[in-house]
């Protein structure tokens, strides 16, 4: 006790110091978090596929954003099936869905076309091409169940769980209606 | 007194460490691809959407009809507000409906400007739809439309009026060409709110 240093002072100083040290060790690794690369490749892939589909492959390069009706319906009709050569008058070429979009095997992409073709509705619904009336129809309106109706969606289902996916949006016009095309890449 | 100096030394050392961490925070930042409303990916999607809407409207002929959606007697667009442009509503044309579908439902605000030359050669920028000053992360897409002397004004219900655009006394654009009335560039500025 001759040294004039009490236990209380020691406890106070050391506890403040230790507390600050623990706080720094817990907090500083978090400042590097913005620089951690997450879904870099999928962002570029989604943008490339979406631009390619809406401006080039399903439309003609002279009129970007105007989708060709026959080629678009053919593309979605033959997206899930066996390999088949693309029509010669369409802008895309290749035999399978992955081939036509220029994807590697490990890259997964899901393309969905939604829009609002029913009068009075304001929400977007998945669309299909009604072969009977030769027009666009919404999937939940009931007129998409026939054999010659083509669901305007292609690609594998996006995974549930913790895999990060990147969604890309494009607006185009198909058969006189403006449609929105979602491309999801993972 | 020496005892309290030891305590003070520990506290000052702790403050020094915190100051060092605070200083190093200046070097970190939000990167363009961080998840926020100003992410570069989201801005790219907004610009592509605006371009797609303009392309769809031009293909349907609705851009021209929206430019000519003018009420000659009152000198204003049909059903526009008193200030001369649309604020909370959109023109009752297909272009307005496309904008409403693509942007309003996604929480994206937008302004639409009409840019055309005046008779004296200046460039006039007229508001068609105005929703406020755009944020710092706004994107623009534009498309050019030609108006000829033979075009007629459009009525409120979408039908053709009898008045040709050259005879419309209150029309906002001047006749600057011989066979072409004027060339209007439609600009859509979109930003996330």
Structure in words:
The complex is a heterodimer of chains A (186) and B (193). By secondary structure, chain A is of the alpha+beta class. In chain A, strands 1, 2, 3, 4, 5, 6, 7, 8 and 9 form a 9-stranded mixed sheet that branches. The model of chain A has no long low-confidence stretch (mean pLDDT 83). Helices cover 28% and strands 25% of the residues of chain A. In chain B, a hairpin with a 5-residue loop joins strand 6 and strand 7. The longest helix of chain B has 23 residues. Classes of the chains: A alpha+beta (186), B alpha+beta (193). The interface between A and B is large, with 45 and 41 residues.
Biggest beta-sheet profile of chain B: 4 strands, antiparallel
- First-residue to last-residue Cα separation of chain A: 68 Å
Question: What is the chain-wise order of helices and strands of chain B?
Answer: HHHEEHEEEEEE
Report the total helices of chain A.
4
- DSSP strand content of chain A: 15-25%
Rg of chain A, Cα atoms, Å: 27 Å
Along the chain, the helix and strand elements of chain A come as HHEEHHEEEEEEE
Radius of gyration of chain B, rounded?
Answer: 26 Å
Summarize the structure.
With 186 residues, chain A is α+β, with helices and mostly antiparallel strands. Helix content of chain A is 28%, strand content 25%. In chain A, strands 1, 2, 3, 4, 5, 6, 7, 8 and 9 form a nine-stranded mixed beta sheet that branches.
Topology (elements, then pairings):
The complex is a heterodimer of chains A (186) and B (193).
Chain A: H1 7-27, H2 40-57, E1 59-60, E2 63-67, H3 69-77, H4 97-101, E3 109-115, E4 125-130, E5 135-138, E6 150-151, E7 153-154, E8 166-174, E9 177-185
Parallel strand pairs in A: 2-8
Antiparallel strand pairs in A: 1-2, 3-4, 3-7, 3-9, 4-5, 4-6, 8-9
Chain B: H1 2-24, H2 40-59, H3 62-67, E1 70-71, E2 76-77, H4 94-102, E3 108-117, E4 123-129, E5 139-148, E6 152-154, E7 160-164, E8 180-192
Antiparallel strand pairs in B: 1-2, 3-4, 3-8, 5-8, 6-7
